[in-house]
Design a protein that fits this description.
With about 290 residues, the chain is mainly α. It contains 17 helices and no strands. The model is unreliable at about 50-55 (pLDDT under 50).
């Protein structure tokens, strides 16, 4: 080591303080420190192994819990269906459970619950589908089960929380051109536009984000969104005194709607988008 090399050439000079010693200095390894470090490293390895074992155990427990939950979703009482939907909502929050949930056949009864369940059950089913829709591998199963129409219906007739969860589920599904077209064809655009005015602050934010995604790379949807009257309320959400949601998503929605569409750009200008954007930038700069 560097210390040993130093002491071989300068046996009376302390390598750390550079002071001369009266006696010859000898390098002695700190075996106690070495042992403590080795024990600490082994403890870290043990923690990693325990974590991996716990992850495998959790996955096994989740897989074992799924069949009875799916059975409750299918044939249980209204209360049992709600309980099962709540449990699946929690399980779906962990992406490690996605494949097991899909394989257990939970997606079709979750979709059915969007129509036939109680209001809380619908909210929980939409939340579970929202989490499952983060994984693109689940999209085919969710669409095949017919989730889009009842989710769109929830945008209009759901509770405030249900509207937010439905919009979030649709937004997670809107990552392919085919899904965007299917969502627009199911009539999602008008209720999303309505949420910009009548929804809660969170619903307004989700609606803006959803319109941004539906408009992205889809010229037909851009035209349909403007025709549904989205531009004035989006511009209104940029103005001072409107808080409680992400204005970034509103700006992104307007940008997505404007790309390649001069008529939409003109409508934004007429609605006062540019002064509102300027005022927003100035407020952020303060």
């Amino acid at each position: 080591s560097a210390l040993e090399e130093h002491l071989r050439g300068h046996p009376y000079v302390d390598p750390l303080t550079n002071q001369r010693s009266r006696s010859k200095l000898v390098f002695t390894p700190n075996r106690g420190l070495k042992t403590a470090i080795e024990m600490w490293l082994r403890q870290g390895d043990d923690e990693d192994h325990r974590t991996k074992r716990n992850d495998r155990r959790d996955a096994a427990e989740a897989a074992a819990a799924l069949p009875p939950l799916v059975a409750k979703l299918t044939s249980g009482t209204a209360e049992k269906k709600e309980e099962a939907a709540a449990a699946l909502q929690l399980l779906a929050f962990d992406s490690a459970n996605d494949a097991a949930i899909r394989a257990a056949g939970a997606i079709p009864p979750l979709v059915a619950l969007l129509t036939s369940g109680t209001a809380p059950a619908k909210e929980k089913a939409a939340a579970a589908l929202r989490s499952l829709a983060v994984d693109a591998e689940n999209h085919a199963a969710i669409l095949a089960a017919g989730a889009i129409p009842p989710l769109v219906t929830m945008l209009t007739s759901g509770t405030d929380d249900g509207k937010v969860k439905a919009a979030a589920a649709l937004q997670n599904l809107a990552c392919s051109s085919e899904n965007k077209a299917a969502i627009a064809a199911a009539g999602a655009i008008p209720p999303l536009v309505a949420l910009l005015t009548s929804g809660s602050a969170e619903a307004k934010e989700k609606a803006a984000g959803m319109l941004r995604d539906v408009a992205c790379d889809n010229s037909e949807n851009r035209t349909a969104i403007a025709a549904a009257g989205a531009i004035p309320p989006l511009v209104g959400l940029l103005k001072p005194g409107t808080d409680g949601y992400s204005k970034v998503k509103v700006v992104e929605a307007l940008q997505s709607i404007a790309i390649g569409n001069s008529e939409n750009e003109a409508e934004m200008a007429a609605a006062g988008a540019f002064p509102a954007l300027f005022a927003l930038v100035m407020s952020l700069a303060k």
